[in-house]
Amino acid sequence: MGKDFAILDCRPTPLGELMLRRRRILSLDGLEVFEVKLGEAFLMSSLFHDAEVALADLGLSQLDAPALDVVVGGLGLGYTAVAALKHPTVQSVLVIEALDAVVDWHNQGLVPLGATLTGDARCRLIHGDFFAMAGAPEQGFDPAQPGRRFHAALLDIDHSPRNLLHPRHEVFYQPDGLRRLAAQLYPGGVFALWSDDSPDEEFLQNLAHAFVSSRAHIVTFHNPLLNRDSASTVYVAHKATEA
User: Fold this and answer.
1) Which of 52, 57, 86, 219 could crosslink 79 through cysteines, CB 3.0-4.6 Å?
2) Which residues lie across from 145 on neighbouring strands?
3) Which domain holds residue 199?
4) Per-residue pLDDT for the chain (243 aa), expressed as one digit of tens each?
5) pTM for this structure?
6) Count of domains in the chain?
7) CATH code at 123?
8) Residue 37 lies in a domain
9) Is residue 243 part of a domain?
10) Position 13 in a domain
11) Is residue 32 a part of any domain in this protein?
């Protein structure tokens, strides 16, 4: 491989071949970009991470607890987890990632934010199935503390509530699945979700069965490859505050 393109890792997974690659985009003054592909689909790129950061910022900005515990579904290149750690009241971030290769990339320093996450004592990377854990509140997300609750759950795994990486994820986005997730949040807690699609009214109705309020935020960002703006959606839902 030339210095302008390199495949850093490539492994088979139950969802298809997973590849991490690094390339330089000559049209952008040789900017170094890290990309993740699953099969023929692009999962993420370091060139576009505004929405991943907005997921953390929008999800955490309305919480006023003095010490926040956060669970993140989907590690990816680490932008959501790092953005969460930048909030001054966050005391712990637990990141759940189903693909062990992605956890290895961070532990081995193959991706730019790996050292930031693994070097922060507040952050733990867990190899596990976020959706299975979300559906089992009695066990929950933290293997070391069954039934542990969180102030916020930030999710970025599927492309959208309709465009799923695996059909078994579908139950999570239904009212019963969302209620099981809400049971793992403190009163007044927040669930935030990234989506690559436009706001989905049906999904907002599903959120209304489990949360007291919800809103779809459109996050726009510039695409330098196409020289135009693109957009993602971040849903933010609030759990009722108990008296």
Assistant:
1) 52
2) none
3) 48-238
4) 457 899 999 999 988 899 999 999 988 888 999 999 998 888 899 998 999 999 999 999 989 899 999 999 999 999 999 999 999 999 999 999 999 999 999 999 999 999 999 999 999 999 999 999 999 999 999 999 999 999 999 999 999 999 999 999 999 999 999 999 999 999 999 999 999 999 999 999 999 999 999 999 999 998 887 788 999 999 999 999 974
5) 0.95
6) 1
7) 3.40.50.150
8) no
9) no
10) no
11) no
